[in-house]
């Protein structure tokens, strides 16, 4: 049991102790030639020190507390009792703009029933201008007493005079009301777009649920995502991630114009996290032309392209070899075909553009591995691992396919929190057999893969405490685990730290300067009020982050 009051008072004492020397955007380095952080400092997976010495943006030494002895008092930041410093944590898969937009639109996270959803949109609609579209995000029907997804009819009951568009937490489905269907021109005769599905009732009438590529059908009803809104979204998103304790983000499905905005933000000193960008497939030629690489301070990088092979498990869009256990006849969506994929991957390889592909289902993962093999298969061991290709999610993989990741040097970029959200429905959807290779972090480690951890925010909250808890406990936040949820796939503290530090740095080709606190590495540090590996997930708070020697 966590004593909230106690946590808060410890936190404020800690903040007061540190704010005497530190405030956001500054560093003791501004006035001190070198400064030190002392206390419980984990410098790398399985390694610790009592002090880190920092000069400018880099670490100059790590060692015992005596490192700080020669420094004037104002150049020493002593961590409060119980606080733990980790090498700067990287969220290995998030959508920065989406995180910001989540903060800027109706946030439906934590909605516990269709009834509550109705109450929330009714009161939100009351606050909007007449006719304005009500746009929300973050609902998920897992555990709802109604036992189903919401429909247009549910929404119509409370709001029918304006369009309502509510995106599911996973971003792969949305429910809209009848007004939105009407305004978007979706009728009985509207065909399913490629890679998407308009859900229909027995009579063929749209129910209001739009899956994957059917979602853009209502694009015209949404607030225009112009440059100003993007800029604000990226700023809000980056600040949110920093406040949660991250120092770096692998930013997925990015539009090229966002990289330009991020670079401007960074130059203006307004970017509190490092951002490693993986752009949308349509940007491949542009990336080839303009080249990959980072700003001089490694704050903003263009790494590569993120492709998609399938959808998500929650909306039954994940591509499976066999039918969904709870919906015979359905095997998910294939969003990319072999010829296009291999051609694009080959082109990326020849132009040194890193490739990553979203793959959730066992067939989705199999296909991507196979297509990667078409490009990498003839190369020797060193060469085929050199481009460090990745698969995002690697969520349900046939056990036989798991060793292929290490063989080709492919990073499985996995989201611990997905496993603790999905544990409520995945067994029914997949059946026991397929759970053997589902969210199999432990097995990937055993096979020598470079497992990276991420949150997929805004699909999940994007909180490192939750990711660490999920990875090491493999239990829902309330302690639920359920039968057959393979507790042996949980990882050790060392492995969890690696997922968010050293392995994440390796995946973006920065293992020589990021991911650990050592001489010559960037001074990137995530500080928590307690030990996130020892406490319940919410008993510890993110106290501060340091990026490139500056407090953020
Ligand atoms: Zn994602």
Structure, described:
The chain has 552 residues and is an alpha/beta fold. The model is unreliable at 1-17 (pLDDT under 50). The strands form three sheets. Strands 6, 13, 14, 15, 16, 17, 18, 19 and 20 form a nine-stranded mixed beta sheet that branches. Helix 2 (96-104) crosses helix 6 (227-244) and helix 13 packs across helix 16 (464-473). Among the domains are: 1-88 and 515-552, Urease, subunit C, domain 1 (Roll), CATH 2.30.40.10; 106-221, Diaminopimelate Epimerase, Chain A, domain 1 (Roll). Helix content is 30%, strand content 22%. Zinc ion binds next to loops.
Q: Quick summary of this structure?
A:
This protein is an alpha/beta fold. Helix content is 30%, strand content 22%.
Question: Could you name the key traits of this structure?
Answer:
globular; disordered N terminus; nine-stranded mixed beta sheet; 552 residues; binds zinc ion; Urease, subunit C, domain 1; Diaminopimelate Epimerase, Chain A, domain 1; alpha/beta
């Amino acid at each position: 049991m966590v004593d909230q009051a106690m946590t808060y008072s410890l936190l404020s004492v800690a903040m007061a102790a540190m704010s005497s020397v530190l405030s956001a955007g500054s560093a003791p380095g501004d006035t001190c030639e070198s400064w030190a952080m002392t206390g419980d400092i984990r410098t790398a997976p399985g390694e610790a020190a009592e002090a880190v010495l920092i000069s400018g943006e880099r670490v100059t030494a790590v060692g015992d507390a005596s490192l700080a002895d020669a420094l004037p008092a104002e150049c020493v930041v002593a961590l409060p009792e119980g606080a733990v410093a980790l090498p700067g944590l990287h969220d290995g898969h998030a959508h920065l703009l989406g995180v910001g937009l989540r903060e800027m639109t109706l946030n439906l996270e934590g909605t516990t029933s269709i009834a509550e959803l109705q109450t929330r949109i009714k009161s939100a609609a009351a606050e909007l201008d007449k006719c304005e579209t009500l746009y929300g995000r973050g609902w998920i029907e897992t555990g709802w007493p109604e036992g189903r997804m919401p429909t247009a009819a549910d929404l119509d009951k409370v709001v029918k005079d304006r369009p309502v568009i509510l995106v599911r937490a996973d971003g792969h489905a949305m429910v809209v009301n009848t007004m939105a269907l009407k305004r978007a021109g979706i009728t009985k005769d509207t065909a399913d777009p490629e890679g998407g599905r308009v859900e229909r009732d027995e009579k063929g009438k749209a129910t209001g649920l739009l899956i994957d590529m059917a979602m853009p059908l209502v694009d015209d009803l949404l607030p225009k995502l112009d440059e100003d809104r993007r800029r604000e979204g990226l700023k809000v998103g980056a600040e949110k991630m920093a406040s949660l304790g991250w120092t770096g983000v692998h930013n997925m499905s990015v539009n090229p114009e966002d990289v330009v905005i991020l670079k401007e933000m960074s130059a203006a000193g307004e970017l509190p996290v490092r951002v490693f960008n993986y752009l949308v497939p349509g940007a491949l030629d542009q990336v080839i032309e303009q080249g990959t690489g980072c700003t001089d301070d490694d704050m903003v990088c263009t790494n590569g392209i993120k492709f998609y092979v399938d959808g998500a498990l929650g909306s039954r869009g994940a591509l499976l070899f066999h039918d969904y256990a709870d919906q015979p006849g359905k095997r998910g969506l294939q969003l990319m075909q072999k010829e296009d994929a291999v051609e694009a991957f080959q082109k990326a390889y020849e132009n040194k553009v890193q490739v990553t592909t979203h793959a959730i289902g066992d067939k989705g993962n199999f296909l991507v591995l196979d297509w990667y093999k078409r490009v990498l298969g003839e190369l020797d061991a060193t060469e085929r691992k050199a481009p460090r290709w990745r698969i995002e999610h690697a969520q349900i993989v046939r056990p036989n396919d798991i060793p292929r990741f290490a063989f080709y040097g492919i990073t499985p970029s996995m989201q611990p929190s997905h496993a603790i959200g999905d544990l409520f429905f995945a067994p029914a959807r997949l059946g026991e057999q397929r759970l053997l290779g589902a969210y199999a972090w432990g097995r990937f480690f055993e096979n020598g893969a470079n497992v990276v951890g991420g949150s997929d925010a805004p699909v999940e909250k994007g909180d490192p405490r939750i990711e660490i808890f999920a990875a090491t406990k493999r239990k829902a936040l309330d302690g639920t685990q359920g039968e057959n949820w393979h507790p042996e796939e949980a990882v050790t503290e060392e492995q969890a730290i690696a997922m968010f530090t050293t392995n994440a740095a390796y995946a973006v080709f920065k293992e020589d300067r990021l991911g650990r606190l050592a001489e010559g590495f960037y001074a990137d540090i995530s500080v928590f009020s307690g030990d996130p590996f020892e406490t319940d997930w919410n008993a510890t708070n993110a106290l501060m982050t340091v990026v490139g020697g500056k407090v953020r």
